[in-house]
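Example (one chain per record):
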Amino acid sequence: MEAGEEMERILKKRQVLMFFVLLGIAQAGSTLRRYSVEEEAENGFFVANLLKDLGLEVEELTARRPRVISKGKKLNLEFSMQTGDLLLREKLDREELCGPAEPCVVPFQVLLGNPLQIFQAELQIRDINDHSPVFLDKEIILKISEMTASGTTFLIERAQDLDVGSNSLQTYTISPNFYFHLKLQDSPDGTVLPQLVLDKMLDREEQSEIRLILTAIDGGNPPRSGTALVLIEVLDINDNAPTFSKFQYEVQVPENNPVGSQVAVVSARDLDIGDYGQIAYAFSQASEDIRKTFRMNATSGEILLAKTLDFESIQTYTVYVQAIDGGGLSGSSVVFVQVMDLNDNPPELTMSTLNNHIPENSPETVIAVFSVADSDSGDNGKIVCSIQEDLPFILKPSVENFYTLMTSTALDRENRSQYNITLTITDLGTPRLTTQHTITVQVSDVNDNAPSFTQTSYTLFVQENNSPALHIGTISATDSDSGSNALITYSLLPTHDPQLALSSLISINADNGQLFALRALDYEALQTFEFRVGATDQGSPALSSQALVRVLVLDANDNAPFVLYPLQNASAPCTELLPRAAEPGYLVTKVVAVDRDSGQNAWLSFQLLKATEPGLFTVRAHNGEVRTSRLLSERDAPKHRLLLLVKDNGDPPSSASVTLQVLVERAHEDDLLTLYLVIALASVSSLFLLSVLLFVGVRLCRRARETSMGGCSVPEGHFPGHLVDVSGVGTLSHSYQYEVCLTGDSGTTDFKFLKPIMPNFLLQSSERENDTNASYRNSFEFS
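Predicted structure:
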């Protein structure tokens, strides 16, 4: 009970809301235009040009899309999009559309879109004389007593004419005779009733039967007519006519009464006796519709239903009845039957416009325009229209029970792509009848979502020396839109680094985001680089997003160790001097090498492969120092040849070899060396004195360019860059250098080792040995 009251309260609120909205919308269609056309006009007949009344130009017709709508589809009209003419699509039958009603006016609407507008109009169908008067009974029998006085009138069954107005039945004529003339009487409903008036008394013995031709004539031009035979049987005397108990009867009959049920009972009495007092009941002046709907029990006067009543078709019937006695005298009465309406018709919905594909992000978009109707009357015909409350749609009422279904807010296809809207139309009768109509609305996509990468940045690892066109990784983006709006194209974005030729390094598959290295990468030249990629959809306008890609080149063991010292490009192996009195562990020399690779590929180890005396020398595996392993003996050879292997820690490892010659010094050579030093010192002193004298002479004689002197050049700086470990983790550091002095004499070339420029921690271990052998090394000559 409480739920029902709540429902009524909600419906009342909606009705109030719809009422105020209706007041605003109805102003646009308040002007009612009437057009007219004759019935039976041919298909394609011109009715009117609506451009002026609609306030449109021909160029606007395509955009506004006019449509002609008729309630119940009674009119089949066509609107010409080229001219704005209103045309008939089929013949119209006025009698079928309106029956006896005059004028025959049928309303219709012209529905305009963009924006929505409803134009109210009506079409009047003018009657033409296309029907002749028809007597339902081709033979009318009258039984008249021979004692009937002159001047007595007899009511005759009237003719039926479906036309109206001046084309309807206007008059009757009777064939010439000696006994009767015709009298016309107007009935309450405006029709003409024919009556026979007796001019002189009949004589059954002279003429027992009289035949007359009754002609009904309409007012058309030319007029149409119909005839019936009036057969008069002359009877013996009967001086009392039947009399009904009521002059008129009024009954109410529910429209759902079954066929055969009683409608009313009429009653009449006759004061005569015998056959003259026997009464038979019958319809009088009954139309074809009356005879199909009711039937009369001639004996009891009971009127029964012959077919089901329909309030929506006919609300009232006027049934004329007469009682005829055995002598031919009759009395008449009328029965008014009022059909009572029941809520037996559910509401009807007529869809005028339907647009069930709407774009997202478009508020107040018209989805459908429809009309509702209920053939019942009173509360049974009052209608309430509603939709579900949890949907972003609203119903707006318009004129003549028209409703507009439209979006209340902007829709988001990514949130929901389809809606099922149920239109519920309920009348207010008892019990309430409901009609439902479901509309499926598809939300079409708008490109309102940019592609989104699965990661904001990508890190890819590539082994150097890769093959060209190697697939190094894939980037991926998604788009919440659909169709072409979700089709993604990938691209490389321009880089801001002028030194990075990205187009020669990387390419991208525009369809699937696969990245390829176009050429082999070199770790020693390029360890890492970054670039940005873009993902663009195919919407209009196109949307895009970006992501960062970082490529790390992984080192491969593609560089063999390079020996910096001793140099291996000379014509003879490097020679080192070893004092015969050297102690075990004496530092003979140190092999210096580098590797351009990085990590474990640049970790170097040293190994003695071959030696003249295998047990005399050892090589430190991690620093390349060549040391003696024992004291030298007189049996040891004076010259030794060592073959060393420098190997990195790569997989597979790379290596380089170096050859050393070691000369063992003798004792008498020390004395000779001292003598050579004394002689050299004296020579240098003499040369210095001579140089001073020459310089003074030159200054005096102004001969500055007569004498030239040789010099000693000392190169400074680092070794060339290609010999240095880029990563700083190789065997030789940047500060490990030697000073070299080359004499300018042309006779011999002396390679003189001076003080090495190196970190102190490398010098402390070998300072003593180097000082001992310095004098001998400085004079050693290579051939």
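Caption: The first strand starts at residue 33 and ends at 38.
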